[in-house]
Design brief:
- The protein is mainly alpha-helical.
- It is built from three helices and no strands.
Length: 71
C-alpha cells in the first residue's frame, strides 16, 4: 500500500469528531438512564413503605405518576 491509500483508509477529522461526539452522547444517556433507574428504585421503596391499607391501588397510582406502566 502506498501512503496515499493508507491516508484514505483512515477516518477523516470530521468522522473522528463525530465518533467522539457519539461516544460522549452515549455516555451521557447511559448516565441519565442510571440516575433515572436509581430514582425510580428509591421512589418505589418509599412508596412501598407508605402504602396504606385503606387504598391498595395507591402504589399503582404513584407509579403511573412517575411514568411507569401498571403491573
Amino acid at each position: 500500500m502506498t501512503a496515499v491509500s493508507l491516508h484514505h483508509a483512515g477516518p477523516t477529522r470530521l468522522e473522528t469528531a463525530l465518533l467522539t461526539m457519539a461516544d460522549a452522547l452515549t455516555a451521557y444517556v447511559a448516565h441519565r438512564r442510571d440516575l433515572r433507574s436509581r430514582r425510580r428504585a428509591r421512589e418505589l421503596a418509599s412508596l412501598s413503605e407508605r402504602r396504606s391499607a385503606r387504598d391498595p391501588r395507591e402504589l399503582d397510582i404513584a407509579l403511573l405518576a412517575l411514568g411507569s406502566r401498571p403491573r
